[in-house]
Structure formats: structure tokens, C-alpha cells
Design goal:
seven-stranded mixed beta sheet; 2 domains; Rossmann fold; 27% helix; six-stranded parallel beta sheet; alpha/beta
């Protein structure tokens, strides 16, 4: 079968690889029909992630089940499903606590399309077929009447960005939200959407990039154009601040923009081993910093419900749609969000 492979540097190629097979009676095989590009994918294919190839690409996947193991009860061949990018069993202590990003039944950080972070090649969404272990737990039914390109991103980024804001607004209804945009192009937009959908008092988006500022404005945010590098004084104090730029400058700006006893969430860690953090300021002001990989499978049902109800529109963040077969040419496009869709799929 064909698999889009990151070879190294800025080189990607379609490789012919053996198709996956059912290894366990709890497995399912899924044909990816719509895949969206994660912000990390863009860094990978431009050689900026530090992840060494070769490995399969694509981890935000919606598709059709083509085969199931004998123990699978909740799904059948032909079902349309969303495939969370993190592998989890649903039964271990961590999974039962909702920490599906750290399942103990598989190697730590097991994920599609990210072999270097876990050491196991699970394949990628940009391929003809993927194997899904623990299918009854892992898979989520596609909401009826919604296009697969709308929900594919819920496998990672669209759930990450939404849940990052929704959890804090649940604790602080009506609070103002500041989103600092940058490296995490689409995560920042999902955070804006979440803040608007979940009733934030004011949603402010700050960035030094005109296309992202325009997109954020179209999604309902007030915008602040910053100079290059985000070298700007805080635009005010906010109860909730989302740092989606992932730079030293952005985290310092985020802390200075967080009100006393406020929340600051960093959407990525860092590609460097260490990051300067002003603990004295954080202590004095009383800032809670949250930084963590998303627990996609645990958070996904709530996000799917908001999509099904019409409250959340991940498809509005997509800025380019291309044929699945042209993924090798388009995956490096610097646009905010790319969807790779098979012919005949919405």
C-alpha cells in the first residue's frame, strides 16, 4: 500500500509498504478518507522538529472501517469513524483516570504518525490503511450528517485547542481570554473558536502574522497586531491566557498578561531542552501554568458533541483542501490548516 513518509530534512515521499493486518481480535482496520495537517507536521516536514526520519506521516484521521477482529462489538465494516492519534486501551489505571495520553498497555506516547516520540511505527493517516488496536475503546463514531474533513482534526488539534480553553471557562464562566498566536497556527484558531463558543467575555488574539490575524478576526476575536518576535508590552491583564506561539518571548508575554491568580496554558512544550520561566513573577502574581499533551480520547466525546450541536466548527480553520493523493506536494504549505481528502469525500 502507499504511505506518505517523512524521509528527513525537508523530504517526503510516497513509499510502498506492506499493509497492516489484524494482530488481535480487538483490532480494526481503517481506511483514512480525510486527514488534516497538525501544526507539528508542518515543523516536521520543514526539518524543524528534531524528529529523525524515516517514519509515516499523518495523525488527524477520519475514515471507514474495512475489517474488525472477532471481539469488536461496537463497530462494523463500513462504519465511519474518528481515530484518536494517541493509542490507548481504555482499561488501565491511567486511562480510567482520563489520562489516555499515557496508557500503560502500550509504549509511552504511542501515536500514529510520530514514530520517533514512542519508538513504534504505528503507521500514519496519510496511507491506504491503518490498524487500530483496542478498537471498541479507541474509535469514535462519526456524527451523522457531518463531513469527515470537519471531524478529522478532532483526532488531535481541534480537540486540544478546544479543551484547553473550555476547561478553564467552565471554572470561570464569562472570563476574558487572550490567545497569543504563532508556531501553533491552527491550535490558536481552535482556542479562539472555543472561547467564543463557550461564552468568554472578550476574546483577544495577538500575533505578528497578518494571515493568522485575519483568520482569528473572522472567527470572532478582537485582534492586536504585534511587532515581529512579539516584542510588545502586555495588552492588559486576563484571567485566561493561551500561549500558542511556543517561544521564549511568547511565554514571558503570556505571564505578564495573566492577571493575579489567573491561568496560563502553553500549547506546546519546547523543541529546546529547557525554557526560561520567571518563577519569581509567577509566584508573586499567583499564576497557574498548565502545559501538557492533550488526552485526546478522553476529551474527544465532548468536542464531537459540540460539533454535532453546531457550536464548534473546526472546518472553518481549514485554509486549503487538496486531494489525498497530492499530500506530498501540499503538506509543507505554510498556510494555517490543510485538509487532505479522498475523491468523493466532503
Amino acid at each position: 500500500m502507499r504511505q506518505l513518509t517523512y524521509v528527513g530534512g525537508n523530504k517526503v515521499e510516497w513509499w510502498d509498504v506492506p499493509p497492516p493486518r489484524l494482530h488481535d481480535d480487538r483490532d480494526a482496520l481503517v481506511q483514512p478518507l480525510a486527514v488534516t495537517r497538525c501544526d507539528l507536521d508542518l515543523a516536521i516536514v520543514h526539518g524543524r522538529s528534531g524528529l529523525a526520519g524515516p517514519f509515516a506521516l499523518g495523525h488527524e484521521t477520519a475514515g471507514r472501517i474495512v475489517d474488525i477482529g472477532g471481539a469488536v462489538r461496537n463497530f462494523a465494516p463500513g462504519d465511519l469513524v474518528i481515530v484518536p492519534f494517541q493509542i490507548s486501551c481504555g482499561a488501565c489505571d491511567r486511562c480510567r483516570r482520563g489520562h489516555t495520553n499515557a496508557c500503560t498497555a502500550v509504549p509511552f506516547r504511542s501515536s500514529y504518525g510520530l514514530k520517533p516520540v514512542c519508538g513504534v511505527e504505528y503507521g500514519g493517516g496519510l496511507s491506504d490503511l491503518i490498524r487500530v488496536p483496542f478498537a471498541d475503546h479507541m474509535l469514535v463514531h462519526q456524527p451523522e450528517g457531518h463531513p469527515l474533513s470537519q471531524t478529522a482534526g478532532l483526532a488531535d488539534g481541534a480537540t486540544d485547542g478546544f479543551s484547553a480553553v473550555a476547561r478553564w471557562l467552565q471554572q470561570r464562566p464569562g472570563a476574558d481570554v487572550l490567545v497569543i498566536g504563532g508556531f501553533a497556527h491552527s491550535l490558536a484558531m481552535f482556542a479562539v473558536q472555543a472561547a467564543v463558543a463557550r461564552g468568554a467575555g472578550r476574546v483577544v488574539y495577538l500575533d505578528d502574522h497578518a494571515p493568522r490575524l485575519a483568520k482569528a478576526k473572522s472567527l470572532g476575536a478582537d485582534i492586536i497586531e504585534a511587532p515581529a518576535g512579539l516584542m510588545i508590552e502586555p495588552p492588559g491583564l486576563f484571567p485566561i491566557v493561551i500561549d500558542a506561539a511556543a517561544t521564549d518571548a511568547s511565554i514571558l508575554l503570556a505571564f505578564r498578561s495573566t492577571e493575579p491568580n489567573g491561568i496560563c496554558q502553553r500549547m506546546y512544550g519546547d523543541f529546546a531542552e529547557t525554557t526560561p520561566v520567571p518563577l519569581r513573577h509567577m509566584y508573586g502574581v499567583g499564576i497557574t501554568l498548565k502545559v501538557s499533551r492533550v488526552n485526546v480520547r478522553a476529551e474527544l466525546p465532548d468536542c464531537v458533541a459540540h460539533v454535532a450541536a453546531g457550536h464548534y466548527h473546526p472546518e472553518h480553520v481549514i485554509t486549503r483542501r487538496v486531494r489525498f493523493e497530492d499530500a506530498h506536494e501540499a503538506i509543507g504549505d505554510p498556510t494555517i490548516r490543510v485538509a487532505f481528502v479522498r475523491d468523493g469525500i466532503a
